[in-house]
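Honest question from a wet-lab person: if I give you the sequences of every part of a complex, can you actually get the arrangement of the whole thing, not just the pieces? Trying it with mine:
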Amino acid sequence: MDERSSEIALIHKAQALNLKKEHRRQSFWVALMWLFGLITVSILILVVGYVLLKGGTAINWEFLTTPPKGGLSGEGGISTTIGTTFYLVGLTLLIATPLGVGAAMFLIEYAGEQSLGSKFLRSMISIANFAVETLAGIPSIIYGLFGYALFVSTLKFGFSLLSAALAGACLVLPTIIRTTEEALLAVPDDYRRGSLALGATKWQTLYRVVLPASTPGIITGIILSVGRVISETAIFYVTLGGSYRMPTSVMDSGRTLALHLYYLAMDTRAFDKAMGTGAVLVVMIILINLLIDFVSRKLTAGVRRVR
Amino acid sequence: MNDTKLETINYSLYYGKFRALKDISIKIPKNKVTALIGPSGCGKSTFLRSFNRMNDLIPGVHTEGSVLIDGEDIFKVDPVALRQNVGMVFQKPNPFPKSIFENIAYGPRVTGLKDHHKLEEIVERSLRSAALWDEVKDNLGKSGLDLSGGQQQRMCIARALAVEPTVILMDEPAASLDPIATLKIEDLIHELSANYTIVIVTHNMQQAGRVADFTAFFYTDESRTGQLVEFDETKKIFTSPRDRRTEDYITGRFG
Amino acid sequence: MSGRMIADKVVKYILFASAIISIIIVLAIGFFIFRESIDAWTEIGVSEMLFKTVWRPGIDQYGILAMIAGSLSVTFGAILLGVPLALGCAIFLAEIAPEGVQAVVRPAVQLLAGIPSVVYGLFGMVILVPLIRNIDVPGNSGYGLLAASIVLAVMILPTIASIAEDAIRAVPENYRHGSLALGATKWQTITRVILPAGKSGIIAGVILGVGRALGETMAMIMVIGNSAIMPRPLSSNPLTFFLSQARTLTGNIAVEINYATGIHESALFATGVVLFGLIIVVNASARWIIRSQKYVEKAN
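Yes, you can. This is the full assembly:
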């Protein structure tokens, strides 16, 4: 018997008709989902491709090694902005990493402490967790306003690398805390018990056993934060100032690549140079994404080896 | 002699290179209860799932030989249509996170039925057939997840019945239930067998003895490939098995 | 006590201090922003700021209603465009795409998430705005809600898509099996069982996307026009509402903070307070929904 009459033999005619309708409906929607997937990839290719191609034409050795001329001309290169970006990343992470890793260690490793005042500790820990979640949701411009009010104005650091790095540290702190927490949680308890059973103190255990085991995860968090500092603009717009010169101390102002792109686009309308800056940014982000993938893969490989 | 509802002819199933079922030929009679028994890992559930093509969902699966329902090759038919005719009850009850009413009405809705009166009729009829109506009739809006294990499983049976299949496949339906709930399910199977062809996988030989008209004994060796060793009326399998391996299993020498 | 044990205790207090820092920072942010805004609330007045539409510091007009409308409008537009696309992408990745295709699309979504906002803004200025300017409506400069909504939709797409994908994948496999065994098609299973089951995770993702949208600054400034006016349709066609220029709360702050002083500066901090409040409400609802869904799951 042919296929159609077999199906009708199996089920009622009304159901058979409905089945055909449902199959047609499924074909339509599944095709639409494919389209959405395609559109998403196309958007990426369009934006990244355009910026890289258009921007690529503006990039040459001179562009990368000469400073911007400043003013409204939009002439010059981006050398100082690259330098400022690196300085800012370094300073921000110098402040944020010890704080973030330390905080995560306390929140995870001391969460089950049975000692005097542990009730106080436990409520502090849950408040701190809530605080970290809140910080994660605060937008960049609010961190900028905060940094402006506290570091630039009240503490009188002015528009400087220091103000920007302090604000930036607050911005990336939740990221570092969360990724460190995940890394710490992934370390098997057996490691800790084994170390303590050999007579090590808690701190020795953390320092010699837990931290090394969680290092790849922590590094992932650091790299993610590097990406954020490079990409973020609003927060540094109001704390770093807009100087196009190379900062020589932490109290100097400067411009990151992202800020420079903004100024070029809005003040000077030098779109070709802006595209060039954008291309450099996009390449940096792609490299950072690849680096994160690489480290995560090393992370899972490391766990497998241990077994 | 009964007509045959389900039949397989030299049926083999492979997970990639691994052969899970070897050359199974069996004729399952209509409107009777057939039990599939055998030691763990011998492919009973895999074989059961062949009848509603649920194995199609596993990547890398391919088959040889044929599986027939009412003489039709099930691999030449729309699997969705097949499943509206061959229902399944799973080992662990899997009610949807919906109300009892919506759980049961799911099948009919999916086949295009919208009339609320008809749906109410079907829900009541199915719940009565599954011996659950009296317990839940005032609470149809309650979540299916709020029922006890035994009630959930009967609701899943009602849900399968609502689609009006002619075959019901049951994969160890009482495995996660307590003894009282198990007995209720076994009574239900007995009642249903008058109108449905039931194939049930069970680890519990006493259950097969209580519930099944026919029994098929599956066996596997170190190769882990499942084979059909013996198939006959339950009475004969349990009192005078033809094969040595069947006898060993029945008498508990391995399991 | 031995030296080791003293070190242990000291370390514990240092780490405790680090953990407390996050609480201190949250309180500090709230404190400083609110403190700087007090002058505006007391001298200009809460209802004056929140309900007047004219923002012209030069003549002592500090109504931010137009900016609230701008932020909400562009967020609405971004949700309208971004959610269907993100949800479709999530369904595609979780249920439809073969593994090889997933390996291309998922990294693409992740990369979209990492692109700096100013790059999107630049792309919007250079490509989208001239394109939109072609629409022949008087007053249409290309800059406005449409360009901003498109840019913002692309920016929140990865956030919503990845959370929604996780929510869909988290739906237990046996629901799928149960549905298919009853004779439903794959698509029926997706729409009638999987999506309803994953609903709260998906909604949480959308709410997080809304939070991101409300907080975006530089990309918005670059394409939205920044006229501190109430957005309205440019012609009799109501759709031209999206061609209107506007200004967001975030844009209001960034564009003027570097030269504002006195009451003006305070009013900008007040804008920050309004934004801060809006976002806290959004994030709190996201967590509340996630928590109530987890409670339902635990009950099973």
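Two things worth pointing out. The two ends of chain B are 32 Å apart (CA to CA). The beta strands of chain B are 4-15, 18-29, 33-37, 61-69, 72-73, 86-89, 167-171, 197-201, 214-220, 226-233.
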